[in-house]
Design goal:
This protein is mostly helical. Among the domains are: 48-130; 222-324, no CATH class. It contains 17 helices and four strands. Helix 5 runs antiparallel to helix 6 and helix 14 runs parallel beside helix 16. The longest helix has 29 residues, at 2-30. It is globular, with a radius of gyration of 23 Å.
């Protein structure tokens, strides 16, 4: 699945940043003071030098300290020939640390630079000056393919009426993912009828569509708010298997051995819903909330009881199926 692969790539990138940061620190600590040349000690550090020396933590702090002054240096590194993807992603991670108008404009111009680093950077720093740039990137509803663009525009600091007007035409977009972005963006902005559209989307009988829709609640904190809890409660009863997390047995000559019922495990729609609801309401539970897991009926029942205690109406039925 494309999204699953992208999520795994994202996890790889985060691990890379952390490991490189640790490596850079270890190298810095492992060099005796006597080996540092006089000329080097007198030279002011530059971002390019920090990157060359793999001082990743120092590079991040450099950008935080220098703010807008670091942006031309980031651009210079990004302009280097044969720059590897990991370093490119890291440079957008550095840009994300600079929460100014100039950095927001730069990230809007390179939307999806560094995979999702520019997306999250704009959400953390939603300057109105960046909005026209994002809007100009939008293709027609028939041609647009990037739902992240709509999800980001929905969170920018411009009048709600303007955001609704710009997003609403994409309810009729050709690509389903873009329609999902429009549905969720308009629901966030309280557009009339938007919650009914969310309910319809959650009732889909298409595995990938349901998974992609629920993943937005994982990936974007803006949707993990109490007003979405009521529409997620019926999903606590939805057994649709989304992520295959079973133990697969591969045969020496190729092919795959059938799994036993004990080996066959899936993270289901109900597991996604429990995870999202628990995180949204910060529920005090006697078990761990984590991705790529399954929850027992007893655990789901406990969450339902806590929801009742909080005044929510709880059902034991999933949404009726809404065919695509």
């Amino acid at each position: 699945m494309e999204f699953t692969n992208r999520r795994r790539n994202r996890q790889w990138f985060v691990c890379l940043i952390l490991s490189l940061g640790a490596t850079g620190t270890a190298l810095a600590q492992g060099v005796p003071a006597s080996t540092t040349s006089v000329s080097e000690s007198k030279t002011m550090p530059t971002l390019a030098n920090l990157i060359k020396q793999e001082k990743w933590d120092d590079a991040i702090q450099y950008c935080r300290d220098h703010k807008d002054a670091a942006i031309p240096e980031i651009n210079a590194v990004l302009a280097m020939k044969k720059l590897d993807d990991a370093t490119k992603d890291f440079m957008f991670h550095c840009m994300r640390q600079i929460r100014t108008t100039a950095s927001a404009i730069r990230m809007a111009k390179s939307f999806h630079g560094g995979w999702r680093e520019s997306v999250y950077g704009l959400i953390e720093n939603p300057r109105p000056e960046a909005y026209p740039i994002l809007k100009a990137r939008l293709k027609s509803p028939q041609d647009e393919e990037d739902k992240d663009l709509l999800l980001t525009m929905a969170q920018m600091d411009v009048p709600v009426e303007q955001r609704i007007a710009d997003i609403k035409p994409y309810l009729e977009a050709k690509y389903y993912g873009v329609r999902q972005g429009a549905v969720l963006g308009l629901a966030l902005l309280d557009d009339p009828g938007s919650m009914e559209r969310v309910v319809t989307a959650l009732g889909t009988d298409r595995l990938q569509r349901k998974q992609d829709f629920l993943r937005v609640f994982y990936d974007f904190r803006a949707w993990r708010i109490s007003k979405f809890v009521p529409v997620l409660i019926p999903v606590l009863n939805d057994p649709m298997p989304l992520d295959d997390i079973g133990i697969r047995m591969y045969l020496p000559g190729g092919g795959e051995q059938s799994m036993t019922p004990e080996e066959e495990r899936y993270s289901r729609a109900r597991d996604y819903a429990l995870n999202i609801i628990a995180k949204t309401l910060n529920l005090d539970l006697p078990f761990k909330i984590e991705d790529q897991t399954t929850y027992t009926k007893e655990q789901r029942d406990l969450v339902k009881q806590k929801l009742r205690d909080l005044g929510y109406t709880v059902t034991d039925e999933p949404y009726p199926v809404t065919p695509a």
